[in-house]
Amino acid sequence: MRTFKGIIVSDKMEKTRVVLVTRLVKHPRYQTYLKRTTRFKAHDEKNEYRMGDKVVIAETRPISKDKRWVITGKVS
After folding, report:
1. pTM of this structure
2. Most buried of 8, 25, 60, 66 (most Cβ within 10 A)?
3. Whom does it interact with, and what assembly results (predicted)?
């Protein structure tokens, strides 16, 4: 089961949050690090997390067409 840390960038949907995950990728030729961001839709059953919160998301079964992640907790 994969887990990522990210920041919630949208809380406008019911029971769904959009989490922005940033990672560093090494360029194959120039050996420099590039910043890559990915937006995941994550399930939030109780609507308890808000925009700007740092959270941990974990992989789960498909909940809807786009949701394959669930919020497991808040990072302090």
Report:
1. 0.92
2. 8
3. Part of the 30S ribosomal subunit.
